Amino acid sequence: MNSHEIDYTIYGDDLQAVEIELDPQETVVAEAGAMNWMESDIAFEARMGDGTAASSGILGGLMSMGKRVLTGESLFMTHFTNQGVSKRRVAFSSPYPGKIMPVDLAKRGGTLMCQKDAFLCAAKGTKVSIAFTKRIGAGFFGGEGFILQKLEGDGLAFLHAGGTVVERHLNNETLRVDTGCIVGFTPGIDYAIEAAGGLKSMFFGGEGLFLATLRGTGTVYLQTLPFSRLADRVIRHAPALKGSAKGEGSVLGSLGRMVDGDGF
Description:
By secondary structure, the chain is α+β, with helices and mostly antiparallel strands. The protein has six helices and 17 strands.
């Protein structure tokens, strides 16, 4: 086992927190600013990257920094280590309403692809890197863009998603999904973008111009309420914010909402 073996408890329903139980000298790695509370003897340190590139020297560290910049995340991740002699706990929560999803990477073939901002925390030894989508259409019109986060390891990782998380298992099957509703998928799934339908459906159906098509054998994680959709509704119903929304009321703004599946 390369990753630390950690135990956890998830609290709450729609505004969840995950409490990680650490044995002495065990470590959990989290996104900067995700910590809610921690017990005594837990020491934390901000480091560049997940710690798996330490043996690669300066070059490995620089490459890890570059990958973090490309995903739009902070250069630093926070390492929480139990330096006591008994079990201690530290808790984390997601930055918006939704669910926290534990994933045992060992049971998912050791790898999981996920959207750029889905990662919350993981046992030390989990490698957090990036992967590029293979198809240019997926890069331009997919909610994930060209860059996805890639989690590798044999321990527990925790993702957060908006609304409710739905786990679907595909067996040489095809699933068409709103581009913003994808949380993650295993490597056996091929990710592509296709037109939503005929011209009338594309422009007036309210589902956006494009849908993500997932094909193959593996596991797909979906979210019922993407944060972008929630934010759009808040802006539309908040008069004080409406005037500051870029493109609000313009032709370009309307086209952008159609691509996202929000209609007019």
